[in-house]
Amino acid sequence: MIYDTTLRDGEQTPGVSFAVEAKLKIARMLDELGVPQIEAGFPVVSKEEWQAVRAIASEGLNAEVLCLARSMKSDIDEALSCDVDGVIVFIALSPLHLKYKLKMPVSRAIELALDAVEYAKDHGLFVQLSAEDATRTPLTRLYRLFKHAEEVSVDRAGIADTAGCITPTGMHRLVSLLKQKLKVKLSVHCHNDFGLATANSLAAYEAGVDAISVTVNGIGERCGNAALEEVVTALYCLYGVDLGFKLHLLKPLSDMVAALSGVKRDPFKPIVGEHAFKHESGIHVAAVLKEPYTYEPYDPSLVGNRRAIVFGKHSGITGIREILKRKGIVLSEAESRVLLDGVKKISKGYLTEEQLTMLALREVATIQ
Ligand code: MN
After folding, report:
1. Is residue 268 part of a domain?
2. Number of structural domains found in the chain
3. Fewest CB within 10 A of the end CB: N or C in the chain?
């Protein structure tokens, strides 16, 4: 299963702050998409954040609404006052975090985490216990935490690759080893510091992980998180896993989050980027016009994106003639060559189909 943290980790992108109404809009669309759990925020951060989490929790969504909480009763009380369905309680056991952040021994940190889990469970919440910096934590220590959490009936144990520094092979091994020894459900939360967040999430899936944490457009701290659209579409197309999502909403959701977050999307962004289904090269265009799968892995309409054929330096005569023919403009060989020369002279950017048509009409067309 997928749980989305666009509204919590995604909002921790430097410079991003969603207003309550923006968070509600995103939550509604995540719900419509079919995301079963939404991490709506971290209520103790501010009064407005608390209001946003409470508003999302009382929206009557199909999705379960979770929020983040430190391993402290007061944070769980805040969560309860927002009326959420569940909490993600976190603790760090890595040597770095214990020494420089928590300043306490392992045993004390485990005790705090378990107290928090028990307190939240006693109040009827769904509880995930996340081990921050789990990928730089000794495995025996991680296992000890999760085993104890299992004994106090935690609902899920979370492996956070907080600094984004594990490899897919390492993640596969980590999840496999924990799966062998634990009964509790496991989740992963991957960061993209080496561009491996999606790969690591899928490696965890291959090793049997139960839940994957994602954000829309992969927004989040530093280099961001595993992208919702990448993980879900890869699961569907490459692994044959149908989570029942309305995949055609992926592109509109991505557009909405880009607009509301003010974070510009990389044109090369898989699935939802402007270039994801754009073709210019003559050889590619000629083939795609006959059979799109020659240069596309799946139909763009699956994810609500669109194919674009554009014209520039790399264009070829076959593609140009075919596109114009489809618009009722039939060019002779000689006319096509004149037009192609004109197209290749475009020094910046490219022509869209409409611009190509106008150029053809203006310069060489014989309209039939
Ligand atoms: Mn994170």
Report:
1. no
2. 2
3. C
